Amino acid sequence: MKTVLLTGFEPFGGETVNPSWEAARRLDGVQLGGARIVARQLPCVFGAALAALDGHLAELRPAMVIAVGQAGGRADISVERVAINIDDARIADNAGQQPIDRSIAVDGPAAYFSTLPIKAIVAGLRARGIPASVSQTAGTFVCNHVMYGLLHRRGPRAGFIHIPYLPEQAAQHPGAPSMSLDDCVAALKLAVELALAHRQDLAVEGGATH
């Protein structure tokens, strides 16, 4: 049976939980679409996150990888289109590093596009009543670092999904949107199913005006 690697991050930025890991670990061992999901946590640390990822790739030899991260302030499931070759940290990572304008791969291209069917995933999530959109930026923090590094390895089909704060986190950030853990878990499970089912993406609108 083929393996789908689903990664989430440890808490960062003063938070006590990270919804990406809380949701991913709920799906560890789940079988669907002829595949088994294996969840692994990554450190929210530049460099160390990719080293951990390399270990998981070598151990599991997955057919597909979906990395997941927290995007506090976003209101929906954000399926990332592109990762850029830059680390530019607004805050320090969990090891106290704060790289500014540093290339992730000196010999790498400016950007990589997700190899997941991003529009099919968004359409499928919306059809199930889960707010979702194509995102045109994964930021320049550790999430983008991992997405770029993952695609730079040119291994299995891979991409990145951002999820909102959990309600208990949003309660500490007045006005911030949130999504329940159950909905986040359901969204990731469906995203895996859709990614396994669609080798070709849908040719539908998914752009942004700004």
Automatic annotation (TrEMBL):
Chain ranges passing through the membrane: none
Any GO CC annotation of this UniProt entry: cytosol
Active-site residues, record numbering mapped to chain: E80, C143, H162
EC number: 3.4.19.3
Leading EC class: hydrolase
A GO molecular function held by the record: pyroglutamyl-peptidase activity
Record keywords, A-Z: Cytoplasm, Hydrolase, Protease, Thiol protease
Catalytic activity: Release of an N-terminal pyroglutamyl group from a polypeptide, the second amino acid generally not being Pro
PROSITE patterns for the chain: PYRASE_CYS, PYRASE_GLU
Subcellular localization(s) per the UniProt record: Cytoplasm
Pfam families named in the record: Peptidase_C15
CDD domains named in the record: Peptidase_C15 (cd00501)
GO biological process, any: proteolysis
Keyword Hydrolase: yes
Family: Belongs to the peptidase C15 family.
Function: Removes 5-oxoproline from various penultimate amino acid residues except L-proline.
HAMAP family: Pyrrolid_peptidase
Oligomeric form and interacting partners: Homotetramer.
Protein name as it appears in the record: Pyrrolidone-carboxylate peptidase
